[in-house]
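Here is one such protein, fold included:

. . .
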Amino acid sequence: MAILEALAPTAEGRKRIALKSPATLEPVGEIVCADAQDVADAIARAKKAQREWAARPVKERAAIVERAIEVLKRRQEEVIATIRAETGKTRPEVLAIELVASYDFLNYWSGRAPKDLADEKRPLHGYLKPLKKLIVHYKPLGVVGVITPWNGPFALAMNSTVQALLAGNAVILKPSEVTPHSSAWAVKILQEAGVPEDVVQVLYGDGETGAALVRGGVNKIAFTGSVPTGKKIAAACAEQLVPCTLELGGKDAMIVCADANLERAANAAVFLSMFNSGHVCMGTERIYVVEEIADEFIRKVEEKTRAVRFGRGDEVDVGAIFWDRQLTIIEKHLEDAVNKGATLRVGGRAHRDGGIFFEPTLVTDVNHDMSLMNEETFGPIVAIQRVRDEEHAIELANDCKYGLSASVFTSDPKKAVAIAKRLEAGSVCINDGEVIYGVLEAPFGGVKESGLGRVNGTDALRSFCHAQPILLDRWNLDRESIWYPFGPDTLKALEGTIKYIFWTPIRKLMR
């Protein structure tokens, strides 16, 4: 929601929050915040229900998740309407970010889970190979708390929730109080598909509700959101020895090399900086362009920025700013940059008449003394800095506390990969950006202050499990050669193992 307004508490003392659309400022509902007892009760129900859910075969759980595709198909227009009311997104943005992505999550993970979570026979190395057999079993953790943000409220809730459910866990979703009803649709759709109500639940609330969930006895937290909140969650989880996955903020850099396709790079610069009103953690927030092509690149970007339409309705490219607090941050960062010498070439103004919007904006002559280049802005701003060469670009790209993703634009694939490997970023796209989150095979996640763990790929799915190794004996002998009592044969066997295996080239065959 654009505007949050505290209302009088309920008779039981629970907080109430009224919500208004950022596109129209019209009321779109309210929520009652779950208190600590509500959280405790939900966790207790989830723990009880999870045992039966985990006992079902993975294929059965996957079939239920796959059925959610048909439910979403029936409910699609309702979901779109809720998201647009709460966020002010354009319809293409809702379809691309929320719907296409969510359909893909349901389809992909329901197909992968039976393979990725099946008992895995792993070959052994060395002298144990003829003696033992190893099976790795993926056991569900129990109850997972999923805490999601306001910028991709439906899709981000769906992705983590589906992975956790397929792994055999129960899930309690705590969506952002800014876009609660959009996220809640993920739970409704999964329940309608057949996931038991106590296995997947939603709790509305603010930070206090989230804190109660983190400390309520769950078995994992999957959090997507800000760095400060992520650090608090990490500290709380560490105290309890509870695992957590943190997908946090970014300040993603784009490097434009001298041999780049400038038309593509300019189109990408505008789109990747402004898509979803700039509210994308892996969106482009810093652009470094090599000096020899900078003038032409900036000319193209300026032309394309001026053509971007913003406002409400279906005839625009960029919709509302989702939250009034974010608009304040955007204005503050831009003002700081201009005061420190940045050149404002296009846009730069907020519009608050009947909604909250920010003009598509282009600034150049920026540097790292400006908040616009070192703090997450999360707005529709293209910020371009000239650099001497590619080495200078790499240096500046890495001069940042964030490290979520980055992009490199060049016509030389070998150079692109070489630069990518030197960037301190969780992932890198060549001649593209943002799409990496939709590549579900890729282990997406950040380095530095951009997070811990991975949210996609087989590693992410299995992170909702305990990988339990089970070692079986092949021969069922009465005793092993190194068991008590020790004797001459024991020493002979051990010394022979060292002498004839590890002191000879045979050891290479035993790897």
